[in-house]
Amino acid sequence: MLTSRNRHRFVFSERRTFVTLRISVIGTGYLGATHAACMAELGYEVIGVDVDKAKLESLAAGILPFHEPGLPELLRKNVASGRLRFTDDYEDVAANADIHFITVGTPQRADSQSADLSYVDGAVDSLLEHITGDALIVGKSTVPVGTARRLSEKIAQDAKPGSNIAIAWNPEFLREGFAVKDTLRPDRLVYGLEDGRGLELLREVYASVLAQDVPEIVTDLETAELVKVAANAFLATKISFINAFAEVTETVGGNIKTLADAIGHDKRIGRQFLNAGVGFGGGCLPKDIRALQARVSELGLTQTMGFLGEVDQINLRRRDRVVSLASNMLGNELAGKHICVLGVTFKPNSDDVRDSPALDIAVRLYNAGAEVSVYDPEGNANAAGRFPRLNYVDSHQEAARNADLTLVLTEWQEFRDLDPNELGEVVASKMLIDGRNVLDRPAWREQGWVMTGPGEYFELNSNNAATGPVPVQQ
Ligand SMILES: NC(=O)C1=CN([C@@H]2O[C@H](COP(=O)(O)OP(=O)(O)OC[C@H]3O[C@@H](n4cnc5c(N)ncnc54)[C@H](O)[C@@H]3O)[C@@H](O)[C@H]2O)C=CC1
Ligand SMILES: O=C(O)[C@H]1O[C@H](OP(=O)(O)OP(=O)(O)OC[C@H]2O[C@@H](n3ccc(=O)[nH]c3=O)[C@H](O)[C@@H]2O)[C@H](O)[C@@H](O)[C@@H]1O
């Protein structure tokens, strides 16, 4: 019988000999750990690869080093079954996997808006050093258009003699907080191919996903790369679009949620991603719209994506607005004031604080002299890792104790369920900014809270009324 070590594999030919697909997933962060566990769940032999030894040790012990609902169970189960293992040894990876998914980071470079592709290049270089037979490299990381074509040239130049390596791009659209569901039942699968090689293998990998009537889009490398950044740019634009209207209603009065509901009923527009708030953050939307502008400018189209600069600016102004509202509510003096910050992650159901509007606002209030107490159900440790000087506490009650002002900046269910009476008993002053528009304002105002949120006209003296915002009389 053939063992996984001694059988020779002809990945692209009809002489294929293997029984089970052997997959590596390179980069075991939010995307890669999810993809690796889900691939193992589909029944394949999977190797998770990283350069971070602490992360590898944790994953190998079945302990997920970040928060993602449903993923710990999948990780434990598949590690225990032996289908999923982890290593930093590329020789092992090249010898024991035929399909290599690249899921390393592509963060914004420190010196520009462009994506840092050094991790992608590093991973491909390491593979090329060791692959001696047939292999398929499948990019999943979000990259500037043209990257896959460049990598293909690198492969042609640097691959070992006798190897036969194809490249494909298979962008990922999962959302943090829904990563497992989005992987096992995505809205669509997109594969960009160079010359058709790899299509059969990708179809085999995703056979049980495709069986659920998931649309499959087979295209070229450039289109696949662009689909991903176009999707994120569209989502970011939708959020900034509603936040631009929030700026208008904050000035003239009006109700931003009603406006969003009303336009959202139009099926061509849709209600999703029209929630005004403190804006978008995270490891993807902000850096992806910047990298897209940078790449398109590099291609000579210096004006084409200019609107994304506006999208970015509108988004960043949401944070300014909360900081100035907070100052305004506290008598234009933040120094020495006690501010309770509820929520520090960029969105609920995640512990990710990358480019988090909530953390940014908390830090800016601290830098202006306020004492800031922070509570997040999952994000405290990551936030403290980036900015240790805030006062991180273990419950919303503790964060709110003696607070002069309370801010809800991430819409965790725990904060949606806050009781205005209970919170009113611990704070020093019943003042609140609902940065995500999730609290029932009339009910809170009835309990004596002075509060406001995105899209609301707010004047400190008039807003004490339980009737809500007072429109400006023109
Ligand atoms: N986080 C998300 O929800 C999604 C992320 N993406 C894209 O996926 C990519 C990865 O994102 P995240 O998982 O969030 O990043 P991450 O920063 O959580 O994980 C990246 C991992 O790659 C590892 N790594 C770096 N160089 C390596 C190398 N040479 N060999 C092996 N491992 C290496 C790092 O140590 C790290 O563990 C990015 O391009 C991102 O835009 C796409 C869709 C969803
Ligand atoms: O490329 C990626 O990494 C991923 O980026 C986003 O997913 P994610 O960053 O997990 O989070 P989203 O749910 O898109 O939220 C992004 C940000 O927008 C904010 N948002 C979202 C919706 C909305 O109506 N208003 C709003 O302010 C959220 O609070 C959050 O800060 C995309 O939704 C995924 O499809 C994509 O795969």
Distance between the termini: 85 Å
Superfamily (CATH H level) name of the largest domain:
NAD(P)-binding Rossmann-like Domain
Number of domains: 2
Chain-averaged pLDDT: 94
Into which percentage range does the β-strand content fall? 5-15%
Biggest β-sheet strands, sense, barrel: 8 strands, mixed
Quote the CATH topology of the largest domain.
Rossmann fold
Give me the count of strands: 14
Helix content: 40-55%
Describe the strand arrangement of the main beta sheet, using strand numbers. Answer: 3-2-1-4-5-6-7-8
* Low-confidence segments: 1-8, 462-474
Broad shape: elongated
Please state the second-level CATH architecture of the largest domain: 3-Layer(aba) Sandwich
Alpha carbon gyration radius: 25 Å
Oligomer: single chain
Organism: Glutamicibacter mishrai
Catalytic activity: UDP-alpha-D-glucose + 2 NAD(+) + H2O = UDP-alpha-D-glucuronate + 2 NADH + 3 H(+)
Binding site for substrate: 173-176, 228, 273-277, 281, 347
Active site: 284
